[in-house]
Design goal:
Blueprint lengths: L11 E8 L2 E9 L4 E6 L20 E6 L25 H15 L4 E6 L1 H12 L4 E7 L6 H8 L8 H8 L11 H8 L5 H18 L6 H7 L2 H16 L8 H4 L9 E6 L7 H10 L3 E6 L9 H14 L5
Parallel strand pairs: 3-4, 3-5, 5-6, 6-7, 7-8
Antiparallel strand pairs: 1-2, 2-4
Length: about 325
Amino acid sequence: MRTLYPEIEPFDTGLLDVGEGQQIYWEISGNPAGKPALFLHGGPGGGTSPFNRQFFDPDAYRIVLLDQRGCGRSVPHVAEIDSPDGLATNTTDRLIADIEAVRTHLGIERWLVFGGSWGSTLALAYAQQHPTRVTELVLRGVFLLRRKEIDWYYNGGAGNVFPELWEHFVAPVPIGERDGDFVESYHRLLYDADLEVRIAAAVAWSTWEGATSSLLPRPERIAETADPRFALAFARIENHYFRHGGFLAEGQLLRNIAAMAHIPGVIVQGRYDIVCPATSAWELHKAWPGSQLDIVDDAGHASNEPGIVDRLITATDTFRSETS
């Protein structure tokens, strides 16, 4: 099985001012003359990690990572904002505009786009708005951001698989609100006047995903998602997007597939993905003529599970010699 490429460091980094008080962190690693590839992180609000560079052959690719608005090394960081108004300019269309601003700034004409979980959502939305800028798509753990997907994960469906972890997730929500929409309840908690209430809610939200993403438990991932600064940005941005349906019309990404139908792509999906169940990947594959679907039978949602890594790197290796 294929494993991650060796660790590498970026050879160029920067903060790009995109207006509205936002500066987007970007970095480039790999081969300066290689095929451009963009990595889109999940969440939204997750930020990039150094190992994200390792999904690409560094001799073949010019690897671009960016941190989406409000998280990672982009500024301002949402953990430092105490009002929902601070996220008013954080929308899917603006993220797409930020991607285009970074592409233009770096002088890239077209690039392979790689995204997992929310990154797959954003990659699809970007490709549908700017199909001439995308050479190929590599997607993992497909999330189409439909209401049924949000309800499955945040309103009880996934709790049937992880009842003990679900109990931790619902614990910050007052008992009288537990028959309602947990996304709405968490919105209030994440901006509570009491800092301890905000942090407790953010950590419960963030560790719910950290604990349920892998096929087998990974305590180190739970610890990472429990970091208060990470958790507050992650929870607030996710909650903001999910309350607004990702700023997409219901079912939009499937309805608009014709705009990108010609783009070749690989979908890698864990069979036992509880965060983003395989039905969304299946529906996307059936609607998208240019796609190949690889279901990994011994994997969940996480990008670093062995079978997922193998299929993702097989995909990027396959596309590395294609002209851009």
